[in-house]
Request: fold
Amino acid sequence: MGSKKESKFQKELIDEIQTRFPDSIVLKNDANYIQGIPDLTIFCGDHWAALECKRDGSASHQPNQEYYVSKMNEMSYAAFVYPENKDVVLDELQRAFGS
Reply:
């Protein structure tokens, strides 16, 4: 599973988020707008989260990604997500959304 393309993993992750949180809105962010901004923003009720998708746990981080994931995690919830930690991140997301 680690060799799966990031775009395919991201699509499957969005589908799983929308199944797990049916009232959520998932937005794909424009990587060209702010370098390093996480790939996805998820709104659920009065909560939000940001996720940076990686094809596997050893995939390199682009400039500013650590900064934005850390900053957004202080504001609400943000994380790097990849196939190996997806279930943990989704469980944390569920706690962050209070559901």
Q: What stands out?
A: The chain has one domain: 6-96.
